[in-house]
Amino acid sequence: MSAAPPTRRFNMHRRLRGVAHAAFSLVAAGTLIAAPMAQAQSNMDSSSNDQQVILDTEINAILHKEFDPVFRAAGLEPKDVTIVIVTHMFNAAAASNHLLFIGTDLIEKTDNPNELIGVIAHETGHAAGYHAARVGEEEKAGMVPFILTMALGVLAAAAGAGDAAGALMGSSQYFGALGAAGYSREQEARADQAGITYLEKSGQSAKGLVDFFDEFRYQEIFEETRRYKWFDDHPLTSDRIELLRKRAMEQPHWAAVDSPEIVADHEIMKAKLVGFTEPAQTAFFKYKDDDHSFVARYARAIAYYRETETERALSDIDALLHDYPNNPYLWELKGQVLFEAARTKEAEAAHQHAVDLKPDAPLLRINLAQAMVAQDDPAKMDGAVLHLRRAISLDRDDLDGGDSFAYRLLAQAYDSKGDEGMARLSTAEERFSAGDYVQARIFALRAREHLHQNTPEWRRATDIVLVSKPTDDDLKALGGRSG
Q1: Of 212, 232, 249, which closes a domain?
Q2: Count of domains forming the chain
Q3: Residue 92: which residues within 8 A CB-CB, separation 6 or more?
Q4: In degrees, to the nearest 5, what angle opens at C-alpha 230 toward C-alphas 219 and 266?
């Protein structure tokens, strides 16, 4: 997301907006911090179907490009809607009107952006109608552990406990709770109609939603073990599909088609997901060597990287960069490959290119800082600190909330500089972001001993102590002189 050991970084940091308000509060600011789960990608065995959370800058940007017009049509502020991507899941669920879960299998099986946008328009209908809040007591009981377990898993990842995060997010309680999110026929019909309204209002066709339902209607007759999860929660009937089709065809934008740009982005997203989450042989089979398209070359480069064929991966990435030198995500991928090959100086250069091309992407700055910190060169630490502080200060939806991992790197950088006060304060911030109030309080108290009194940093350490359930002894210690 000492420097963290080289990990497969499917770069992701994200603040789960609104979860604290919908379920519980873990951080004083009322937000949950989601961590670099591509760090958790190092724990992702492509040969298994373990479900994990993926939050990637490039993919989230593409999803928001597809979904934001629908969100706006529904009266939602797009930047307040957190999209959480879950691997190996054919499902989508609106846990609240600001929290949307979507499975990679669902994304990969859509034939075009309009199909995926149609499904999300339907889910937005559930969200805007607060259907998740209107389910029965049994369903409500299911949704609470669902949200809590997801949140705890995300926090564990933020704290760097990848194994614990995987166990929490992969628990049967977490994913089984999705089954409790099933909706009534009336709510399904309302979500269908709302979805059509949002699509039409945003100038898009509802044909994709109809086609999606049509293509998978046979799932209704499959036994439970073979049925895609989405259809357990959203039962289809022929009458429902025909009613949906009739209204959709009456809309002025029925004949509207996806733009070439959004189609290309959709294919890039699918290729990246296949490359990172499926067995390498799946990527090689789907994107054969004689396919010279950008998406095929991208998917194969990722697959070679995951097969630890470093030189082949770098060769393919360099060929892509020759053709697309201004693509920050290619530079990011090159930096990732080099970093994991322990070629940190070269990784720094690649990540610097990515930052130069996309300076307001916090994760790219964190990647750069990680490569700098890993070199253990005191001369690099001031630059690493600047990049990390810039990343933390940015309030961006594609990475908002990468604070925990960033603060961990900051602690290491300050420690290398011999700045004990800031090192301990950064660790306190990292523990606080992860919801570990006991350790946050301990490190904040230690930080105060090395910081000058009444400076902003000293006051921040004091604030962390005060909001981290201090004991009477802690409160007495706050009265002492520090610095």
Answers
A1: 249
A2: 2
A3: 100, 101, 102, 103, 106, 119, 120, 123, 230
A4: 100
Whole-structure pTM over 0.85, yes or no? no
Q: pLDDT tens-digit profile of 395-411? A: 554 444 457 788 999 99
Would residue 58 count as lying in a domain?
A: yes
Instruction: Supply 462's token pair.
Output: 């004091």
Rg, the chain, Cα only? 23
Q: Nearest CA to 195 among 185, 178, 210? A: 210
User: CA–CA separation, 244 vs 195, rounded Å?
Assistant: 10
On whether residue 473 sits in a domain, the answer given is yes
Q: Does a structural domain hold residue 391? A: no
pLDDT bucket at 49, cuts 50 / 70 / 90: low
* Whole-number Å distance between alpha carbons of 147 and 20: 10
| 267-316 pLDDT per residue, tens | 999 999 999 999 999 999 999 999 999 999 999 999 999 999 999 999 99
| Domain C-terminal end among 212, 234, 249 | 249
DSSP codes, 20-56: HHHT---STTS-EEE--HHHHHTT--TTS----EE--
Helix (H, G, I), strand (E, B) or coil at 100: strand
Q: Is the dihedral of CA 159, 162, 165, 169 positive or negative?
A: positive
Which residues span the domain enclosing 38?
14-249
Mean pLDDT of the chain: 77
Answer whether residue 417 is part of any domain. yes
CA 308-312-317 angle, 5° bins? 105
Q: Judge whether 316 and 292 are in contact, CB under 8 Å.
A: no
